[in-house]
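Lecture 7 notes: from sequence to structure.

We start with a single chain of 427 residues. Read the sequence below before looking at the structure.
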Amino acid sequence: MSDNYKIETKCIQSGWKPGKGEPRVLPIYQSTTFKYDTSEQMGRLFDLEDSGYFYTRLQNPTNDAVAQKICDLEGGYAAMLTSSGQAANFYAIMNIAGAGDHIVCSSALYGGTYNLYAHTIQKMGVEATFVDPDCTEEELNAAFRENTKAVMGETIANPALTVLDIEKFAKAAHAHGVPLIVDNTFATPINCRPFEWGADIVTHSTTKYMDGHAMCVGGAIVDSGSFDWEAHADKFPGLTQPDETYHGIIYTQKFGKGAYITKATAQLMRDLGSIQAPQNAFLLNVGLETLHLRVPRHCENAKKVASYLKGHDKVAWVNCAMLEGDKYYDLAQKYMPDGTCGVITFGLKGGRDASVKMMDSLKLCAIVTHVADARTCVLHPASHTHRQMNEQELLEAGVQPDLIRFSVGIENADDIIADLEQALELV
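Now the structure, written as C-alpha cells:
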C-alpha cells in the first residue's frame, strides 16, 4: 500500500490486492495445507529458500493480508498475527531473549502481561525488572544490566491509563543497545504510531479495538525494521548467528529488515504454534475496515462520560487523559492529540463496596471480562483481571482497590450517562 494514502484509506484498502476475476472481499483460506507439483518446490519452502504457503501454522494468505494491513497502519516493515495479544507479547520478548537474559518493563501493564513477565518467563530463565513509568531517566537507566535484551511498555496502560513517555523509554533502550517494544492496543495506530516516536516493535491485542465487536481473540506483532541487530550482534545471537534448525542460515544476513518477523514465524510459530485462525483473521479484517470511524466515537463518548463523572458528588476521582488537569494530559497531547481511547477509570467515595453495588446496578452497561469493543462494558480489575496480583503488585501496576474500568462504547453518550446516573442513585 502506498505510503501516500491516508490511514483511513489503509483501513479499507491495505492487505488484500485482488487481481482480475478475484474476490473483491478478502477470502478465507480455510485450509491447513497447500499443494505443490514437486518435492523440490516443497523442500525449498522448508529451507526458507523460497517464499510461499505450505502449512497454515507458519503462513496463510488470509492471515498475511490482515497482518500486512496492520503493518501499513502502524508504518512498519513486517508483521505477523498470533492467536492472542498474550501470545504476541510472549513472542515479542522470547524472539530475542532466552534463559539467563533480562528485560526492563514499565510496571503499568495489563495484569496478564505483568504476570507473564514477572512469573511465567522467569520460570524460563528470563528475569524482568519493573520500573515506574513516571521514573526519571536516571532511574530508568539504572534498571539495565549487561544481559538486558529489551524494554517493554504500553502506550496507554490497561487499566491504569498511564501514558507512556515513548521518547524517554526509547532513548534509554537505544542507549543500552536494545529495542523498545510498545503494546499499542488501547491507542491503536489511529491515535498513536509508536514508531514515529522511537519504538522499534509494536504489539497488539487485536481482540480489542481492532476487532471492535468482541467476536474473536487475536494478536499482532509489527516490526519497524529500524533496529540494527547487527550493530549489537553479541546481544542477539538468535538473529545474527547461524540457526542450525534451518541449515545454518543467519536471519539478519538473509532477510535484512525482515529478520525479526521471519525468525518469529519460522522458529517460534513453528515450535509453539500460537497461530490465529484464518476465520478469526477474516473477522478481524472486517473490524479494521471501520477502525478509523469507531475510535474517534469511542474517544468522544469517553470524554463526555468522564466529564459527567468528574462532576458527580459520589465520584472520588476520574482518570481520563483527554481531560485538562489529568496527570497525563500533557503527554497525551504530545503523543495522541486527537484522543487517547474509550477506556476511563474512576472510583467512588464509598470505596470498593460502593463500586461493586454501582456496577451491579447498571442496565445498559454490562459486566464482562472484556474491554474496547463497540458495547459499553465495566469491570473491577482488582476482583477480576488483576486478581492474581498481591496488594503491592496492584499498586505498582496502578490498580487501586476501588478502581472501576469503564470501557465506553459507541452507543449514544446520553444513554450511557443515564445508565450511570440511575446506578449511582442506588449507591
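The longest strand covers residues 148-154. Keep this in mind for problem set 3.
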